[in-house]
Amino acid sequence: MKQLLFIFSLSVILFSCSDPKRDLVISFEEINGLEEGDYVIIKKQDVGTVTKIEFSNDYKMDVHIHLDKVDHLPRDSKFLIGKDGIFSNALYVVPGRSKYALTGSHRANGKAIEEIDWGKEFNDLMEESFKRPAQTQDSMLNELRDIKQEVHEVNEKTK
């Protein structure tokens, strides 16, 4: 009886420690050398780590991440695998604008790029921004400035 109570208590503690908004799974066609322990980066800041990589049933690579310094990510966030220095890779996140957060029950899709062409990524993000309705002209301009700054910062880091 004591063992059963101990196991139950331990499982309650472990279950309560996991946060579905901080533990996410991103599916990739390729992972280009990404490994467990590599960083998750937003705007030059390490915000989490890759905790597990596994082959999925649909022949993709599922990358499990844990966010240490971010409480949640918007559902329309973009995930890119790129170089973090000369010898290691990182999972770069471009946060979206959705008011709804990704949770552990969602499967986000990411893209692994041998060498990130930040100009193309910037153009793709801008095109996507124009597809979304802007509440005001100022909010659209601010969003474009933020995207441009983010692309510039990541480009500087990967040089």
Short description:
This protein has helices spanning 2-17, 118-131, 137-157; strands at 23-28, 39-42, 45-55, 61-67, 78-83, 89-94, 107-109, 111-112.
Notes on the structure:
The protein has 159 residues and is of the alpha/beta class. It has 3 helices and 8 strands, in the order αββββββββαα. The chain has an 8-stranded mixed β-sheet with strand order 7-1-4-3-2-6-5-8, with no helix packed on it. It starts with a helix and ends with a helix.
Give the radius of gyration.
Answer: 18 Å
Shape: globular
Termini Cα gap:
60 Å
Strand content: 25-35%
Number of strands: 8
Low-confidence stretches: 8-17
Instruction: Give the helix proportion (percent range).
Output: 25-40%
Jot down its keywords.
3 helices, eight-stranded mixed sheet, single chain, 159 residues, 8 strands, 32% helix, alpha/beta
Q: Helix and strand layout, with pairings?
A:
Layout: H1 2-17, E1 23-28, E2 39-42, E3 45-55, E4 61-67, E5 78-83, E6 89-94, E7 107-109, E8 111-112, H2 118-131, H3 137-157
Parallel strand pairs: 1-7, 2-6, 5-8
Antiparallel strand pairs: 1-4, 2-3, 3-4, 5-6
Helix pairs in contact: 2-3
